[in-house]
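Dear H.,

Thanks for agreeing to be a second pair of eyes. The structure we're designing against is below in token form, covering all 286 positions.
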């Protein structure tokens, strides 16, 4: 595995690798790798003759007062994991390489970027779409792998790729969970033991919504109320949002009959966690 820190060097290494035939898969990450990241690397390995990954804690997607400075970093541990998963090229640029002084251009998916996490984290999705555009230009992957854990991010990137004619297929992989249901996240490392126990409330709320939906409840308002009740009953947890939206546009839905994304974000102590489930279309639709 080659570790590359320069964008130009990464571009030529990717071109050379593609020249050997077959497509190149890209797995963008911010490091502190867990099984969720590894599942994306394995999906890429299974579908692509060559795999590139990136490790870059993107300052543009963090707001003032967020956890950029203390985001977990373990370059050596991550490097070994990327290598063990058979990654050919690891792009780990310093911040000045991705955003040289004078860099001014931003990419935003208007309308979608302000929904869900975009409402409580202004500028977050714009930071994501900007860095992923740059990665797509540098790596020129045929396939790029993202997690359903960040469902809004995946929907926004799909739209960005379509709107800006990126010749890349966005592949979205299922959420990997801990045995008790907590979605894996690099930020779970921030949780103390009591917080770690409380953190399962996000998935418990989603499961409650899912049970009601399976029982025939289609009113988004009723489902949201039931989910919120579960979260607010948990001491030390503050709900940011629990919403029922269209999985493609992220617009709020009144009814779930055509399928819906149920997304939740909550602060467990000082740590902000997210999770989601997809409700499939019901047989009668509507
Ligand atoms: P991050 O390093 O947090 O930016 O995540 C890098 C990629 O891994 C993103 O596409 C995430 O959606 C994905 N990811 C993070 N956690 C999980 C998880 N628990 N299951 C599946 N994919 C995940």
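And this is the sequence the design step returned. I haven't edited it by hand at all.
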């Amino acid at each position: 595995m080659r570790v590359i820190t320069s964008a130009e060097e990464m571009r030529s290494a990717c071109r050379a690798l593609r020249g050997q035939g077959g497509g190149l898969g890209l797995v963008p990450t911010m490091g502190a790798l867990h099984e969720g990241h590894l599942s994306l690397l394995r999906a890429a390995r299974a579908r692509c003759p060559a795999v590139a990954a990136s490790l870059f804690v993107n300052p543009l997607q963090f707001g003032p007062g967020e956890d950029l400075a203390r985001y977990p970093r373990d370059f050596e541990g991550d490097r070994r994991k990327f290598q063990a998963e058979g990654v050919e090229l690891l792009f780990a640029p310093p911040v000045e390489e991705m955003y040289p002084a004078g860099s001014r251009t931003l990419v935003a998916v208007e309308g979608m970027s302000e929904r869900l996490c975009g409402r409580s984290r202004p500028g977050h999705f714009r930071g994501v779409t900007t860095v992923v555009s740059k990665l797509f230009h540098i790596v020129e992957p045929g396939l790029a792998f993202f997690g359903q854990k960040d469902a809004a991010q995946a929907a926004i990137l799909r739209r960005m790729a379509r709107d800006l004619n990126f010749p890349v297929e966005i592949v979205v992989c299922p959420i990997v969970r801990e045995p008790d249901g907590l979605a894996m996240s690099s930020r779970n490392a921030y949780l103390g033991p009591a917080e770690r126990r409380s953190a399962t409330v996000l998935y418990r709320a989603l499961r409650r919504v899912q049970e009601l939906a399976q029982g025939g409840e289609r009113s988004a308002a009723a489902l949201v109320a039931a989910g919120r009740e579960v979260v607010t009953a948990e001491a030390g947890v503050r709900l940011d949002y629990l919403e029922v939206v269209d999985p493609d546009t992220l617009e709020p839905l009144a009814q779930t009959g055509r399928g819906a994304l149920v997304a939740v974000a909550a602060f467990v102590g000082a740590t902000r966690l997210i999770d989601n489930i997809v409700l499939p279309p019901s047989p009668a639709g509507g």
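Two observations from my side: The chain has ten helices and nine strands. The chain has a mean pLDDT of 97.

Warmly,
E.
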